[in-house]
Amino acid sequence: MPTPSTPLSDAILVGMVSISADAIVAVDDSLRVIFFNTGAEQIFGWQASEIVGQELAVLLPQRFRAAHRGHVTLFGTSHERARQMGQRQEVLGLRRNGEEFPAEASIAHLTVEGRTVYTAVLRDVSERKRIERELRAALRARDDIAGIVSHDLRNPVQAIRMLSGAILASADGDAGAPRLDPAVAEQVAVIRHAAEQMDGLIQDLLDAARIEAGQLHVDPRPTDAVRLVTRALEPLEPLVEAKGQRLDFDADTDLPLVMADAPRIEQVLSNLVGNSIKFSPAGGRIAVTVRADGDAAVVVAVRDEGPGIPADQLPHVFDRYWQSARTGRHGAGLGLPIAKGIVEAHGGRIRIASGDGGGTVATFTLRSAGTGE
Q1: What is the pLDDT, as a whole number, of residue 89?
Q2: CB 260 within 8 A of CB 228
Q3: In a 3-state reduction of DSSP, which class is residue 210?
Q4: So what's the pLDDT on residue 372?
């Protein structure tokens, strides 16, 4: 409680310091503890009545004590009023039971009645470090799984693709080959299609892991944007026709060359247009446009007449494994995050806009070749 001689603001400050969850420890110029708050009691395991008067060294691992005294003394003679500790190496504290723990700490010094007083604020980061270790272990495990998927699973999938394709090709193209029963041919075609889907999923998983690890490699080169988009749309035209939809393409004239890794940008377009095909109704129109955005960039847009994406879901469309319940999406939900990673690796931007029930438009930018790296 404040006394008549203690300003109310000082009493409030003392109260706040006393109950802080961080350890707040003050020592005199001989490095003996003169203040030890409740947070320090909880972190170090000492009661204030037990530790006040003891040397600060009791709170440090033995191997750091001598060097720490030298650092504090040197700091006291400097012009710095405060300093963050642990900038060069991790700070470790020592609990009463002998357990060491990682900490973040800062120290300040001031002169009180001609004496130097040091105040340290220390935070126990044991839990955060534990979570970081677990996260690193999980990331390593994920990378290991990605490696297994890449080698041990992809190879047999590729074999299924090639062998089923060879069976279909030999039966159709070789006059001397025995003709397959139509039902068998249809089943082999289904097997091949399933293998292609699985191979695409494996590629998505690998790309997602590379993007998250910052290891996605692109090789942008000066490219004709219209030719690039036209080539990307060609394999999608049969899918459009199969659903009775219409695919329109329009581009500005005299577009600048863009910096693009062609196979990767074709992957982006395949994903965006593929989504439009999937979610647009029969007879719907899908429009792809390529426009100049000043001299610095080109904008590619894909518009559809699908059911749209609700406004509250739009912020999540680039989240990994996101699915829109309204559109009944199926699959791993990696297409849009991968498209975003590829576009951003090119130095571009991608966005999805949608009117609730009024279609969706996906746009992304590519840098003009003349803008430099």
Answers
A1: 57
A2: yes
A3: helix
A4: 54
What single letter denotes the amino acid at residue 337? P
What secondary structure letter does DSSP report for 40?
H
Strands 285-293 and 246-251: what pairing? parallel
DSSP string, 115-178: EEEEEEEEEE-HHHHHHHHHHHHHHHHHHHHHHHIIIIIHHHHHHHHHHHHHHHHHHHH-TTSP
The amino acid at residue 197 is Q
- Picking from 315, 255, 317, 307, the residue whose alpha carbon sits closest to that of residue 278 is 307
Residue 329 has pLDDT above 50, yes or no: no
Residue with tokens 């700070």: 91
CA angle (252, 256, 250) in 5-degree steps = 20
Q: Is-contact 238 273, C-beta < 8 A? A: no
Which residue did the predictor score with more confidence, 227 or 189?
227
Express as a percent the part of the chain with pLDDT over 70.
83
What's the pLDDT at 330?
46
- DSSP letter, residue 139: H
Tokens at residue 8, please?
């109310």
Burial of 20 (0-12, 13-18, 19+ CB in 10 A): middle
Q: Which residues contact 68 (CB under 8 A, 6 or more apart)?
A: 56, 57, 60
Task: List, for residues 254-280, the tens digit of each pLDDT value.
Answer: 899 999 999 999 999 999 998 899 888
**What is the distance between the alpha carbons of residues 359 and 305, in angstroms, rounded to a whole number?**
4
List the structure tokens of 71.
């650092």
The set of residues, in sequence order, having a beta carbon less than 8 Å from that of 285 and lying 6+ positions away, is 245, 246, 248, 304, 305
CA distance linking residue 95 with residue 340, whole number of Å? 47
Do 239 and 273 touch, CB atoms closer than 8 A?
no
7: its two tokens: 């300003």
Written as six digits, the tokens of 166 are 């060879």
Q: Rounded to whole angstroms, how far apart are CA atoms 126 and 217?
A: 36
Percent of the chain scored above 90 by pLDDT? 37
When mean pLDDT is compared across 39-53, 80-94, 179-193, the lowest value belongs to 80-94
pLDDT digits (tens, 9 = 90+) for 55-70: 999 999 998 888 888 7
DSSP 215: -
Q: Is the dihedral of CA 70, 71, 72, 76 positive or negative?
A: positive
Alpha-carbon span 195 to 129, nearest angstrom: 43
Q: What is the largest CA-CA distance in the chain?
A: 111
Tracing tokens 């960039």 back to the chain, one arrives at 297
